[in-house]
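Input.
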Amino acid sequence: GVPGDGLWSDEPGQPMLALSADCLSIAVARANGDRPAIAVLHAGWRGLLEGIVEAGCAALGDGPMAAAVGPAIGPCCYEIGDDIAEAYRARFGSEVLRGRNLDLWTAAERLLRGAGVRSVERLDVCTACSADFFSHRRDGGVTGRQGVIGFVA
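Output.
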C-alpha cells in the first residue's frame, strides 16, 4: 500500500497500479506453482539505470517470468542530453541510441531478459506521436496518465 515506482504482490486479489505519461509501464508475472506473483513498474530513463527492472524481477523470486512493456515515448521523439546518452552507451551499448534519441523499449527488454524473464512482449507505440496516449513532453507537462494494473488471480 505504499506509493512507489515499483509494486509487487503474491497475495491473490491485491490490486496494484503503476502510472506513466512517457515513461514505460511494465508488468512482470511469475508463475510458480500455487504461488504466482506480479510486479508493476514505472520506468523512465533514470529508473532503468538505477535498477527498477532488476529490483522488480528480484522481488518476484524464483520461477518462470513473463513481461509486458507498454507504450512510452519512442526513439523517434525522445531526445536526451549527452550525459544520459553516455550513461546508456556505457551500460547497454550504442544500439539503444538513435543519434541523440533513446530507445527505452530496447533498454527495458535487455534488462528484463538479463533478469531471467523468458517472454517479453513489447507495445512499441510512441506516446508523443500517438494522440491515443498521454505524453508529458508532447503536452508540456500538463497531461493525464495511462497505467498498468496488475493482480494475482
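The mean pLDDT is 93.
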